[in-house]
Amino acid sequence: MRRLGGMLIILAMLTPAAARAQSHPRQVVWRDDFNGTSLDLTKWQPNWLGANNASITPPVNGAEASCYDPAQVSVSGGYLHLRATERPCTDSHGRHYLYASGLVNSRTHFTFTHGTLKARVYIPGAVTAEDWPSVWADGIGQWPQTGEMDVLEGLSGHDCWHFHSTAGGPGGCAPMAAAGGWHTVSGVWRDGVVRYWYDSKLVGTISQNITDSPMFVILNLGMSSTIAPPMKAPAEMLVDWVEVKE
Q: What is the pLDDT of residues 132-170, one digit of tens each?
């Protein structure tokens, strides 16, 4: 009884948030280490919300220069490979592109609310980031009302973070010595606040207009000469692992 009483005294000395964290530690609820020889289709769809897993879909953003073709997605050597290639591509709506690239999303298989999205990724480029590599989550429902959490996106050579809602898309870019190469990034989404961490360093916090709708995970290598120059192909984004804690 004294041991139990002592435990209660210790918890009482903690802040309410700290006490909840001790009694309910964050758990990994979803993870992919990409250790197989093909994409796990119980976790991912290899295009942008296509009619099926073989669909070649339009890009997410109208400023992108590539379609999303499942042929640009593969798993080998312990990594997810998302490749950008300069070649003609026609999407499921008959629209033509000069480039093809890779994307995976978890919308039909996994969503989360108020959790931590974390990934270890290889961003194409040496000192600066090339193309538009992204680790992000999008809200279920009408955009931007349901929110968009950009944990990482390469913009004009920089590694950047944002949160989109009806109030806009506040955020910033991290002053990293080398935006390209291997980095571990995370967005810690709690009630009313998102904190962004790059390589174990806090790089940004957004605490206004944070939405509460469930979100799904997206990993993609976009291409845009206007939003995310320089545009380069061939190029490849690698993902070592990705996880969500709640």
A: 999 999 999 999 999 999 999 999 999 999 999 999 999
User: What are 88's strand-pairing partners?
Assistant: none
Residue 42 dihedral angles phi and psi, to the nearest 5°: -85, -10
Task: Give yes or no for a contact between 237 and 129, defined as CB atoms under 8 angstroms apart.
Answer: no
Give the range of the structural domain holding residue 157, as residue numbers without chain letter. Answer: 28-245
In a domain, 209, yes or no: yes
Please count the other Cβ atoms lying within 10 Å of the Cβ belonging to residue 137.
Answer: 23
State how many domains the chain has.
1
- Whether residue 33 lies inside any domain: the answer is yes
pTM of the predicted model, to two decimals?
A: 0.90
Q: What is the CATH number of the domain that holds 158?
A: 2.60.120.200
Q: Which two tokens stand for residue 244?
A: 């969500």
Find the angle CA(133)-CA(121)-CA(227) to the nearest 5 degrees. Answer: 15
Instruction: Name which of 244, 113, 145, 128 is nearest 186 in CA terms.
Output: 244
